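Table S2 (continued). Query chain:
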Amino acid sequence: MSKPNKQDESGNKKKNTSLRLSRNTLKALKIRAIEEDASIQQIVERLVEDYLQTSRKSNS
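Corresponding output:
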């Protein structure tokens, strides 16, 4: 039986992924998340969305 997809507050379905980061990068990311009162997931998603928007604009 498969797990149900999680949804965010706007009803968008979420999928899991994994990535490898250096120990120092992950430590810095955790510290930044604490400072910003955000989750690592929120920060990574925001960064990816910003990257995708920037990529589209520069490819136009």
